[in-house]
Amino acid sequence: MSDYPFFFTWSAQHGAKPLELTGGEGAWFTTKGGGRWLDLGALSYQVNVGHGNRRIVDAIKRQADELCLSAPNAVFPAKVELAERLLKMAGPEFTKVFFTLGGAEANENALKIARLYTKRLKNIARTRSYHGASMCALSLTGDWRRAPVEPGIPGIVRAEDCYCDRCPFGKQVATCARECATHIGDLMKLEGPKQVAAVFLEPVPGANGVLVPPAEYWPIVRRACDEDGALLVADEVLTGFGRTGTPFGFQHWNVVPDMITIAKGLASGYATIGAVIVHDRIARHFEDHVLACGLTFYAHPTACAAALETMKVYDDEHMYANATKLGPVLLRELEAIRARLPVKAFARGLGLLAALEVEAPAAAWAKLGAELAQRKLSLHVDAKRGTCIFAPPLCITEQELVTGVRSFGEAASIAFGS
Ligand SMILES: Cc1ncc(COP(=O)(O)O)c(C=O)c1O
Asked: Chunked in runs of 10, what are the mean pLDDT values of the chain (418 residues)?
């Protein structure tokens, strides 16, 4: 048995490695015994504002003193103000917010809302996707985490990815006809007209390798949804709140989805909160139809206060602009590392979300893990998919980023050769 009285997630318990966190500041976190790590992965992609943010901690304390208990139908200022702010961020087409505790629940509820609104039973989601660990969200998920608990919910239709470096259609991005996008419309026709309730897409699939789509991708999918009457759900759990430089990822491509699911950066990890932001057209439907969705901890006061203050920190400290500014720097540094590697590798990214994909044997990946630990660099290393994913807090400075990625480059040279 492992030494701890609780389960570690996504791992066999024996040999699971605990992360003994003690605190942190900005782009750095500290661990028991005095370790200071550069956080190039924002822990679980959620610490967008950075570690040790006193403003958010104080906002939680103030809210706890003022009102700490709530009920799903309760109204209090932080809840109203937060919803208003989220709607403003999403755009004038959106008029209601449904709160959840995290990302999986946001996708669960988006799926339910899509089913209630359209009365259709099928949904489309992609192969290299992650939408959460609850049963419904995991059924939408395409990656390895779905398989151990299959069969999931019925009616999920799997679409190919916008994976330009290894195009599933065998095309080159310079000459392709955006088959990855047109294929989604084809799937709708194949399933029979007006069968699909919603298409769930991460604007940039994150944990599955930062698959940045071509510019036409989202507009083509939007058109296919409109033609069939299917809803388009942007899963912004990872990409939301400036991760790719824009407030939401879909805003790169001048499209409007029907629902937006959020969590992680919403309160930047300082509290557990997620949400579904809902288009006015759908919101109006529930004026006289029952919204059969609910949670005991719907919009908990301390979580609302944390999220509200997080939004203010993003604005006051221009963090989305920092992601836009530093995105090309991150990509340039990764490209330099890629060019030096003697093995097949790809670098890609958007804003402060980037991946280095490397073809290397398991032993090289184990070596990389050890080298990174020695350098106290924290990022998402996924030997299964051959990717290192970078998603630092948006407050990171250029110097911290460049120094950290170059240090990663030394580790990569040792692990993969140069
Ligand atoms: C795109 C995406 N959707 C949903 C989720 C699930 O969010 P949560 O872990 O808060 O349930 C994640 C988590 O990594 C995610 O990356």
From this structure: 89 89 98 96 98 98 98 98 98 98 98 98 98 97 94 97 97 95 97 96 97 98 98 98 98 98 98 98 98 97 98 98 98 98 97 98 97 98 96 98 98 94
Helical pair 77-90 and 301-316, crossing angle rounded to 10 deg: 40
Ligand 1: does its nearest atom lie under 6 Å from the Cβ of 202?
yes
Task: Answer yes or no: is the C-beta of 207 below 6 A from any ligand 1 atom.
Answer: yes
Q: What per-residue confidence (pLDDT) applies to 233?
A: 99
pLDDT of residue 42: 98
Cα–Cα distance for residue pair 164/128, rounded to 1 Å? 13
**pLDDT at 50 (0 to 100):** 98
Q: Does ligand 1 have an atom closer than 6 angstroms to the CB of 29? A: no
- Strands, E, within 103-245: which ranges? 122-126, 156-159, 196-201, 231-235
What is the DSSP code (8-state) at residue 148?
G
CA separation, residue 395 to residues 36, 40, 349 (Å): 17, 11, 18
Residue nearest to atom 4 of ligand 1 (CA): 131
pLDDT at 9: 94
Strand partners, 198: 123, 231
Q: Which two tokens stand for residue 220?
A: 């083509």
Q: Which two tokens stand for residue 350?
A: 């958007």
Q: Does residue 130 line the site of ligand 1, with CB under 6 A? A: yes
Span from the CA of 295 to the centroid of ligand 1 (angstroms): 18
DSSP labels, 357-405: EE---HHHHHHHHHHHHHTTEE-EEETTTTEEEE---TT--HHHHHHHH
Residues 262 and 89 sit within 8 Å (Cβ to Cβ): no
Which DSSP state fits 254?
T
Predicted local confidence at residue 15, as pLDDT: 81
Q: Is 79 in the pocket of ligand 1 (CB under 6 A)?
A: no
Per the CB < 8 A criterion, the answer to whether 358 and 343 are in contact is yes
Which of 44, 46, 130 has most ligand 1 atoms within 8 Å of its beta carbon, as the pocket-test mutant?
130
Asked if 111 and 199 touch (Cβ cutoff 8 Å), the reply is no
Q: Report residue 308: phi and psi, to 5°.
A: -60, -45
pTM for this model (two decimals): 0.98
